[in-house]
């Protein structure tokens, strides 16, 4: 590394050190677009031009021209020539937008997920970004929460697989020399995905054992893969907001896990210690934030206004500030910014790289693999000679990118209509809007019905506007909007085959649409190549292979509903009328569609499941094998899922836990044998004393196409 960071730190004044801990939005900086309009924000935050001049990082800067200008102006005024870190939310693509992460999870394709992150990093880096606030690995079980779209689902094992894949894609193998990569920042630490009531920023309350077993593994997986940064969560953890939680950040993250990278607050989270009720004022918030280990304060000025005084009063050791500053300087050094502060930034490469045909093709492939066929009564794939009526608010709508696609272009996204039109003649494709997202007029409905009457089959393009999910996009009622349900009901009365394509950022309550549709394709927010991917799927040029990574509830009243739940002392049996067991009087216990579920245009059969032995020890293993056969007439890809259940533990264990999976491509009539290996370490869990170990006794090994349809074999762990 080119510079000695400890030597540089020694040259810095306390004021300069504190400013390094400050992250400000782009508009504060000279050289930015709209330069010169910073007087108001500076006054509102109570910070000086000196703080801006010495600050350490920028939020939301992108575009080679703007980033280079900001960095150039900054270096001209910074006494020690310390470059800025440029950070941004590059979550599921930069300008080439991939499906939202929940959809990517449904691909069960870690290699393709890694490729999407690599492409996002390349496009972002040539536009001047050094750090992305991704991956978000929060485990999610409540679809009311808007940010489930940013997670990969409800399973800790699968989330860990994708966490590693995203980090590899963003950072590559040599972050210093590979300037087409960016540093990753795993978020939100910790347990942000479990807010009470599914309401953003709300209280999280769980035992430390549950936290370690279900919610922490994916963060740890990202850090084990070398993730450079961690972002704190907005929520409380055991009553203490994460951004001021010393036990969580210092004791667990830094001491126990050995993380020595940069920790950043989420937007305004340090100052939010005040309304949380754990800090009296900004001074106390600054003290608690830094003592907890938060290195960078994002978009509030508690550190800038109070740390110097806290050091002077003896309440805060300057050594803690030095630790944080050194971590920031080391990251800048690792990114090579002292030698090349314009790292990777290139207006020429922007024109060549961004939205390239290669990138769009990968986006299309991932959109195809992320879509999940939820129902098909022999109506799909469509015949290209049929007359098709495309109806609904998403028929000719570019709002298919989803939240956290701030650099994406809705105008550049392939609409469903254009995707279908590329496959069939204009004479065979009729179109009508049918309704708006949340409103419908008599004129729209009349036009839709008249259009539908002329067609052989009707494709309904329905869903949520992107603003209805994502951060702040929580919904208590997770049905489709009433206007669209009215459209579905009226179209269904025509008695023609209805194929519904859904665009949404969360599992929905599908009443009012699934029974009314002959086929249902969950497309999520597919990204830039939405229309072309959906057309391939609808016409059978691609075979659906996506599998759900988050359960679809039968009713919002079940939430949270997830596959890896515990049994009760009074489980519901086959007699659904029995009263004194765990059940609802008015709805099933089970979700409408389970974790791992998804259909194909072919069928698969599982047979001859066997174990290589009926027991194992701490020093041995056993193999579980199964034959999978394509029993249909089309080639297709199956996701073979492997689960384990511990039948008797010191702590009650889940009914099933995903421990592995394999994607297998099979030609019609082809059979392949799939093998999973069981070792003792896969059987470990956190006990009541938080020790991580296994229990001897009986276990079930389970294999099948989803978490509900499983073949079971029993084995024993001897210790």
UniProtKB/TrEMBL annotation:
Limits of the Fibronectin type III-like domain: 638-707
Record keywords: Glycosidase, Hydrolase
Keyword Zinc-finger: no
Enzyme Commission numbers on file: 3.2.1.21
GO molecular-function term, one example from the UniProt record: beta-glucosidase activity
Hydrolase among keywords: yes
GO biological process: one example: carbohydrate metabolic process
Family as reported in the entry's similarity comment: Belongs to the glycosyl hydrolase 3 family.
Entry-linked PANTHER family: BETA-GLUCOSIDASE (PTHR42715:SF10)
UniProt-recorded name of the protein: Beta-glucosidase BglX
Protein source organism: Sutcliffiella horikoshii
């Amino acid at each position: 590394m080119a510079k000695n960071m400890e030597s540089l730190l020694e040259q810095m004044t306390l004021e300069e050190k504190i400013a390094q801990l400050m992250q400000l939005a782009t508009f504060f900086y000279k050289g930015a677009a709209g330069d010169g309009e910073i007087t108001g924000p500076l006054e509102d935050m109570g910070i000086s031009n000196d703080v801006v001049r010495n600050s350490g990082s920028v939020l939301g800067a992108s575009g080679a021209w703007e980033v280079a200008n900001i960095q150039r102006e900054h270096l001209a005024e910074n006494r020690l020539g310390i470059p800025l870190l440029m950070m941004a939310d590059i979550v599921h693509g930069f300008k080439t937008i991939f499906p939202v992460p929940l959809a990517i999870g449904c691909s069960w394709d870690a290699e393709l997920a890694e490729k999407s992150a690599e492409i996002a990093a390349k496009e972002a880096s040539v536009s001047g970004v050094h750090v992305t606030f991704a991956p978000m690995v929060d485990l999610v079980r409540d679809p009311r929460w808007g940010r489930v779209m940013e997670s990969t689902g409800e399973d800790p094992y699968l989330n860990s697989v994708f966490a590693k894949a995203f980090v590899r894609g963003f950072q590559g193998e040599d972050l210093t020399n590979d300037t087409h990569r960016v540093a990753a920042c795993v978020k939100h630490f910790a347990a942000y995905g479990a807010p009470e009531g599914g309401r953003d920023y709300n209280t999280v309350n769980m035992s430390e054992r549950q936290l370690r077993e279900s919610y922490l593994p994916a963060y740890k997986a990202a850090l084990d893969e070398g993730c450079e940064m961690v972002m704190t969560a907005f929520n409380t953890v055991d009553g203490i907001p994460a951004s001021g939680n010393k036990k969580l950040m210092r004791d667990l993250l830094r001491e126990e896990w050995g993380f020595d990278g940069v920790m950043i607050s989420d937007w305004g989270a340090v100052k939010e210690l005040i309304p949380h009720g754990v800090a009296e004022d900004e001074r106390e918030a600054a003290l608690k934030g830094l003592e907890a280990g938060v290195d960078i304060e994002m978009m509030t000025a508690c550190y800038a206004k109070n740390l110097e005084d806290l050091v002077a009063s003896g309440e805060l050791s300057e050594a803690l500030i030095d630790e944080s500053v050194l971590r920031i300087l080391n990251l800048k050094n690792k990114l090579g910014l002292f030698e090349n502060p314009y790292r990777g930034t290139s207006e020429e490469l922007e024109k060549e790289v961004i939205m390239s045909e290669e990138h769009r093709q990968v986006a299309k492939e991932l959109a195809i693999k992320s879509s999940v066929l939820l129902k098909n009564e022999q109506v799909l794939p469509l015949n290209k000679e049929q007359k098709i009526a495309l109806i609904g608010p998403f028929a000719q709508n570019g709002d298919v990118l989803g939240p956290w696609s701030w650099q994406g272009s809705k105008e550049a996204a392939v609409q469903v209509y254009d995707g279908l039109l590329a496959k069939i003649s204009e004479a065979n494709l009729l179109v009508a809007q049918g309704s708006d997202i949340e409103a419908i007029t008599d004129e729209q409905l009349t036009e839709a019905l008249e259009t539908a009457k002329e067609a052989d089959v009707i494709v309904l393009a329905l869903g949520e506007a992107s603003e209805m999910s994502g951060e702040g996009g929580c919904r208590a009622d997770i049905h489709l909007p009433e206007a669209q349900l009215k459209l579905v009901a009226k179209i269904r009365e025509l008695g023609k085959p209805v194929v519904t394509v859904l665009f949404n950022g969360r599992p929905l309550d599908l009443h009012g649409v699934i029974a009314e549709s002959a086929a249902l394709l969950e497309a999520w927010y597919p990204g830039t190549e939405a229309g072309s991917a959906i057309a391939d799927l609808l016409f059978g040029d691609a075979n659906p292979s996506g599998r759900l990574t988050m359960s679809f509830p039968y009713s919002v009243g079940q939430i949270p509903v997830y596959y890896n739940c515990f049994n009760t002392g009074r489980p519901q049996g086959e007699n659904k009328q029995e009263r004194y067991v765990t059940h609802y009087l008015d709805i099933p216990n089970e979700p409408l569609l389970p974790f791992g579920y998804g259909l194909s245009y072919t069928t698969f059969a599982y047979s001859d499941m066997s174990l290589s032995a009926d027991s194992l020890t701490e020093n041995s293993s056993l193999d579980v094998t199964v034959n999978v056969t394509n029993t249909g007439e089309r080639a297709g890809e199956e996701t073979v899922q492997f689960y384990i259940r511990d039948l008797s533990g010191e702590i009650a264990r889940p009914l099933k836990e995903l421990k592995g999976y394999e994607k297998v491509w099979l030609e019609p009539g082809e059979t392949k044998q799939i093998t999973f290996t069981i070792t003792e370490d896969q059987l470990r869990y956190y006990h009541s004393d938080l020790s991580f170990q296994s229990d001897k006794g009986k276990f079930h090994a389970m294999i099948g196409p989803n978490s509900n349809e499983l073949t079971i074999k029993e084995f024993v762990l001897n210790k």
